[in-house]
Amino acid sequence: MAEYTTFDICVIGAGIAGASVAAELADRARVLLVERESQPGYHTTGRSAALFSTTYGPSVIRALSRASEPFYNNPPPGFDRPLLTPRGALMIARSDQLESLDTLQRELAGAAGVERLDGSAARALVPLLRSGHVAAAIFEHFAQDIDVHALHQGYLRQFRTRGGTFVANAGVDAIRRGNGGWTIAAGSRTFEAATIVNAAGAWGDAVAEMAGIASVGLVPKRRTAAIIALPDGTSAHHWPMVIDIDEEFYAKPDAGRLLISPADETPSEPCDAQPDEYDVAVAVDRIETALEIEVRRIENKWAGLRTFAADKNPVVGWGDADRSFFWLAGQGGYGIQTAPALAKLSAALVLGTAPVRAIMDQGVDLQSMSPERAVLRK
Ligand SMILES: Cc1cc2nc3c(=O)[nH]c(=O)nc-3n(C[C@H](O)[C@H](O)[C@H](O)COP(=O)(O)OP(=O)(O)OC[C@H]3O[C@@H](n4cnc5c(N)ncnc54)[C@H](O)[C@@H]3O)c2cc1C
Fold it and tell me: Which ligand 1 atom is the nearest neighbour of the CA of 17?
């Protein structure tokens, strides 16, 4: 296939955001997808907890997650299936946390598949919960595990099939605005494109600054995860994910083991995030307090950056009056579950076509994601 050095659109960053929007654009424009690393899922996309929940996050995130569900349930040809498998999510509260549980229950009033449980019903679902630890819980039946690798690879495959050009090992280090477009330098390579889509995750503001576009005040926040063994003879395969109602920790079955996290949110520079021993120890302590598990060994541990704007809504829309620099950033802790809807919506906005009706009908408010509101609030 012919390689162009001049493109209609250059997408910077090939995590789930960049891969998905590039795939949605590639059958209607000449699209370049550039990635600094050799592996496109190396940063946050490859480090998630892989949960799909339509009750998690701010209201625009919930709307985008609902709007993503049809894609997950019926992905196009070329995606491995299934992308989702049943899991369930159990939000647990101690007696001193019941106010938080009541607040969530009010927020979720009328949502399908959500029920309040007492402590013993919660323990029936997760028998290792310590007796007396859980006063009450909210169980979300329809929370699911996402096959993140299948989703990400599916989009990259679709992008190539549609004629897109993917260049790895290409960190964009200079961006210059010229007549009718952008000149984008990545080491010794130079590309030209009329439009840039900024999908650089934790580096979103850095990419904007290179292009002379106002930054939006993104803050990458480190979150730690670790894998531990279950007690001998315990199978957690059918357990839901257990989430402390105030997000003090969570635990999720993962291939016969348990993924645990202290749900930390430590502000960080954009970087290759590494787990901090203290955060791993906090996770272990909270797990041992809530569950009848004695953690003898950490089998694996990692950290990733969840990147937020000040109000925790994503940043999606044009960053300049010329409509040549488009933001797709600030997905925080929800960038996998919302990727299908965000990609379709962003592609429509970039191409100037009408936003997909089925997405807007879920109550997606474009103003709540606009770069201008993020600039104002930073
Ligand atoms: C522990 C943890 C648990 C999570 N759990 C969930 C969950 O259960 N469900 C959910 O939906 N989400 C979850 N998330 C959040 C989710 O992983 C992110 O929202 C999502 O991966 C963000 O994708 P992205 O493509 O924006 O970022 P990234 O995957 O970080 O991709 C950005 C890419 O841009 C590249 N890049 C940056 N600068 C340049 C440059 N100058 N030139 C070229 N390339 C560049 C980077 O190398 C990187 O590959 C979790 C995150 C963490 C850390």
Answer: 25
User: pLDDT for 274-305, tens place per residue?
Assistant: 999 999 999 999 999 999 999 999 999 999 99
Residue 319 to residue 325: CA distance in whole angstroms: 6
Per-residue model confidence as pLDDT tens digits over 94-106: 999 999 999 999 9
315 lines ligand 1 (CB under 6 A): no
Decide: 225 in ligand 1 pocket, CB within 6 A.
yes
CB of 13 sitting under 6 A from ligand 1: yes
CATH topology of domain 6-66+148-218+311-377: FAD/NAD(P)-binding domain (3.50.50)
Task: Give the CATH superfamily of 89-141+219-308.
Answer: D-Amino Acid Oxidase, subunit A, domain 2 (3.30.9.10)
Residue 219: its pLDDT value, please? 98
171 lines ligand 1 (CB under 6 A): yes
Distance from C-alpha of 309 to C-alpha of 219, rounded to nearest angstrom: 6
Query: Which residue out of 35, 43, 44, 265 has the highest number of ligand 1 atoms within 8 Å of its CB and is therefore the one to mutate?
Result: 44
CB 75, CB 20: distance < 8 Å: no
The domains of the chain are located at 6-66+148-218+311-377, 89-141+219-308
Nearest CA to ligand 1 atom 21: 45
Global pTM reads 0.97
Residues of the chain with pLDDT under 70: 1-4
Residue 4: per-residue pLDDT:
53
The total number of residues shown for the chain amounts to 378
In this chain, the answer to whether the domains covering 6-66+148-218+311-377 and 89-141+219-308 adopt an identical fold is no
Q: pLDDT at position 150, please?
A: 98
Spell out a b/e string for 279-315, using b for 16 or more CB atoms within 10 Å of the CB, else e.
bbebbbebbeebbebebeebeebebbbbbbbebebbb
Ligand 1 neighbourhood includes 37 CB (under 6 angstroms): yes
